[in-house]
Amino acid sequence: xxxxxxxxxxxxEGAINSEDLELATKLDKQLLENxxxxxxxxxxxxxxxxxxxxxRHRFIVNKVDFSKKQVHKNITQFNKNQKNLKKYTHV
Length: 91
Fold this sequence. Notes:
Mean pLDDT: 85
Helix content: over 70%
Largest sheet: none
Distance between the termini: 66 Å
Strand content: under 5%
Order of helices and strands: HHHH
Low-confidence stretches: none
Structural class: mainly alpha
């Protein structure tokens, strides 16, 4: 089970890096389903490993959030530049 979770995390990171957000969403759901389906005893045995997976997942999600903010900032700057360009070309 640990190997499967590791593989899903690696695939998720790869999908995000290649900007395949549809695949990333599917992999994220699969990861959640696999963790939820784990037996409670197995969860207790592997708590340290699961914590590391959660940390990696959090890092990946933060990376996506940062990327979204950066895209929004770039779009805002582009729109501002377009507005200024129109303003100065009609002078």
